[in-house]
Amino acid sequence: MRHVTRGRAAVCGLVMCAGGAVALAAGAAGTPEPATIFGFSAADGTRELAFEQRFDAALDPADLRGWLKTLSAGANHVGAPHDKANAELVRDLFRQWGWNAQIEEFEVLYPTLKQHSLELIAPTRFTASLQEPPIEGDATSTRTDGLAPYNEYGADGDVTGELVYLNYGMPEDYRALARRGIDVKGKIVIARYGKGWRGLKPKLAQQHGAIACIIYSDPRDDGYARGDIYPQGGWRPPAGLQRGSVADMAVYPGDPLTPGIGATKDAKRLPIAEARTILKIPVMPISYADAQPLLAALAGPVAPGDWRGALPITYHVGPGPARVHIAIASDWSLKPVYDVIAKIPGSERPDEWVVRGNHRDGWVFGAWDPLSGHVAMLAEAKGIGALLKSGWKPRRTLIYASWDGEEAGLLGSTEWAEAHASELQHKAVLYLNSDTNARGFLHPEGSHSLQHLVNDVARTVKDPETGVSSQARLRARVLVEGFDKDPSDERDVAAEKAREARSAARSGDLAMGALGSGSDYSAFLQHLGLTTLSIEYAGEEDQDGVYHSNYDSFDHYVRFGDPTFAYGIAEAQTVGHVILRIADAPVLPLEFTGFADTMRDYVEDLHKLLDERRTRAAELTPLLDQNAYRLAADPTRAVGAPEREAPVPDLNLAPLDAVLPRLKTSAAAYDAAYARLTAGEIKLSGPQRKQLDALLQGMELRLTDPRGLPGRDWFHHLVYAPGLLTGYAVKTMPGVREAIEAGRWNEAERYAAMTAERLSAYAEGIEQATALMSGSR
User: Does this model's pTM top 0.90?
Assistant: First the structure.
């Protein structure tokens, strides 16, 4: 499901410390193995590196290629025969490799299309094809067993109305329409994919009174304006289109009828009409071949410059004279999802679980999304199985999960996490996720207590194309992007780049991004409060143009994704080494200085956001008072002034400011004590190490509040969450940030105090762990 901007690496715009260039130069010569690795003594670290080399030796790109071809040979959506067959195949592979593997089944609401149509009925007539024809050289594109193009969890309906073009359909686009005197109430809107998650487009359209929403793929975003189209190149052909869920996952993911509980056969379910995540208007995805006649039929104002795509037409906004008729009907029945759960019991600490997952289902064949990541996970499982057969047993329990139903709304992972919530919160020490994978750069995101571990692993994994370490290559990318700054970056992106720059300059580690949503980690991190990590490689593939289409196929991937599967091996090595180190480390390898620095940056971002809002409001007021917008406007193309913005009051962020010094001090003390522990200067007994692990296992949970976020109590995490109006993109300290952005000042102060309280509890946990290592209470 997850679709992020792949044009930049996970860490961007970093300004390195003085040693950065030296580190880059050293990395260019190769990847020397470090004398020690984080979390292990020198002797144990040497043995661990040798052990990881044995694991690497079992990884074979031919395996990944063969599994991908088999798994993507048929349609992989929920309810498809091939989806169940793949679940059984994956279960049997795990068993063959020595894992205890079972299929765990849930029953979820999964509407499937029965019929749909789209017609332009005025001022001319046109009937959309709503089909993706076969492409020469793509073997599976001729199959007819895949899902027809539709948007999951849009409403059934039969409506006719005037058409309005809405750019990307984001909040700022409605403000731009309002300045032109255009209202979408009672209209059908058409928006292009991009800028925000697809589910926000119909949600906002519904809130503004539209009766239906069409979403199309403009060639400026992922078609011929980006590169050669498939099959000559990798980009979206004219009839290609993007399926996808439009469930309101910013409220809660998973089965719409069982929020907060596992969707077992006997689960208590909501009536469909009461499910908050199902839309009330029809939604339809179309190709740019089908969109062009609709857009060409529009009149009204010419669209603003940044609204214009790459079709050979003049983009008008409407409304009308284009009138459109849409009809959609679906089968709204329950359908099974099949999660494959494979386990290896821990030899010393079986009640500490290291959980690893990647989804298996696709909208059609899903070679890139998600099977490119899934086959890398299978390679890890096979490599671990080889170690198991050689006599090794992990210290902690390993659980590998092949999730089903992710594409519709993180169904399989969310239902499993909700069904096992209490056990996971008491036992899981890590959830590690991946999704897609391809040529390019390491892309790590997650709990910042894992930042140093990820950097440590990345120093030992070679980039397949250059021979330097994955960390060294990413560092080079970051340095180049830091020099070649992108002036089009939005505020949140620029703030994240600045934060990452400061973090890298302080510690020498490359900073990790924070997690929003769009893949299977949501339930584990944001609902249950588990330490969570997402790792994949990306940035050099030409796969975006076939995202969620019939052409996300084996034939496309082996040309434009990762032709030699070298990056599939790099992914398996990177993730596998993280898993093995956490599975076998004497004490969980967490580090908190990076976390404390990151929290300081997040609080600084809140202050900057307030200052920016205050400055904007102050500067806008005299412009409005002086009628500047009316005087500056072209009277033949009237555009009204923006709405007046209320003055920004003094907001009390003092609780957040006050907790930061304590967090920094406690983190530094813990990291120093942990270094002494791994060096052998501190001795802990087996029970003491287990007690220390128990403290560390519960650290992320301390950042959660069972009351949740405003209007969406499923999301418990007060530091990381998807934005209510961004979809996949993260909002850090979301209770505070989103209240500031919406001008809800009392709510912002309340969540500032709540978030500070959770950070204080986190600092207390760090201090308890340090005291345990120091022999005091």
Answer: yes
